[in-house]
Amino acid sequence: MNTTLNTTLLIAGLLALPLAQAHSPSAHASHSNHHARAAAEQKDWGIAGDPKKAQRTIEIRMTDDMRFAPKEIQVKLGETVRLVAVNAGKVLHEIVIGTPQELKAHAEMMKKHPGMEHDEPYMAHVDPGKKGDIVWTFNRAGTFEFACLIPGHFEAGMIGRITVK
Predict the structure, then answer these.
(1) What is the pLDDT of residues 2-17, one digit of tens each?
(2) I want to staple 96 with a disulfide (CB 3.0 to 4.6 A). Which of 63, 82, 111, 123 is the partner?
(3) DSSP strand pairing (79-87 vs 56-63)
(4) Nearest-5° angle of CA 139, CA 52, CA 83?
(5) Contact 154, 77 (CB under 8 A)
(6) Contact 60, 96 (CB under 8 A)
(7) What is the rounded end-to-end Cα distance, in angstroms, of the chain?
(8) Which has the closest alpha carbon to 131: 163, 156, 95?
(9) How do residues 116-143 score in pLDDT, each as one tens digit?
(10) Would you call the peptide bond into 121 cis, given omega within 30 degrees of 0 as the criterion?
């Protein structure tokens, strides 16, 4: 082979290395681990839980009369719970966990930006007839809320309470 062809092949090979690494299984594992670390941010109402360590499952139904059932749940301090949100309605609903102040501020932001997409471990958007879940470790005592922050739903009273003792 001539020197120009060898140099061209060498350069092409070197340029392809980052692409090969980006699509390797180890790159994806690292990428997903980054998301897992980012998801584990301590909040006033707890921290994202490990699904394998969920101690119980609580089903929460969301309906088009803008209510949750049950609207109040009790959780033990330190307990990891899987909340399964069932959308029994015909419109999109969501469940977001937080302090009353955080939820009110987020609801105001949603009014200004109703199409805003967000994906945090303490929330689940659920299409009609579908289920979504949140796995959360309640490592802070107190009274917190869960709410649907879709514009109009929060204002209509689509709010529930979580008591952690």
Answers:
(1) 555 554 444 444 444 4
(2) 123
(3) parallel
(4) 60
(5) no
(6) no
(7) 76
(8) 95
(9) 777 899 999 999 999 999 999 999 999 9
(10) no
Q: Residue 50 in 3-state DSSP?
A: coil
Check if the beta carbon of residue 135 is closer than 8 Å to that of residue 45: no
Length of the chain as a residue count: 165
Residue whose entry in the numeric block shows the structure tokens 């997903």: 32
Cα separation of 72 and 9, whole Å?
A: 66
**Spatial contact of 128 and 88, defined as CB atoms under 8 Å apart:** no
The closest alpha carbon to 81, from 137, 132, 33, 122, belongs to 137
Nearest to 121 by CA among 53, 49, 44: 49
- Of 164, 43, 151, 161, nearest in space to 94 by CA: 151
Q: Tokens for 45?
A: 């109402």
Q: What is the SS3 assignment for the chain? A: CCHHHHHHHHHHHHHHHHHHHHCCHHHHHHHHHHHHHHHCCCECCEEECCHHHCCEEEEEEEECCCEEECCEEEECCCEEEEEEEEECCCCCEEEEEECHHHHHHHHHHHHHCCCCCCCCCCEEEECCCCEEEEEEEECCCEEEEEECCCCCCCCCCCEEEEEEC
> What is the C-alpha to C-alpha distance for residues 10 and 90, in angstroms, rounded to an integer?
59
Q: Determine the Cα angle at 159 with ends 157 and 146, to 5°.
A: 160
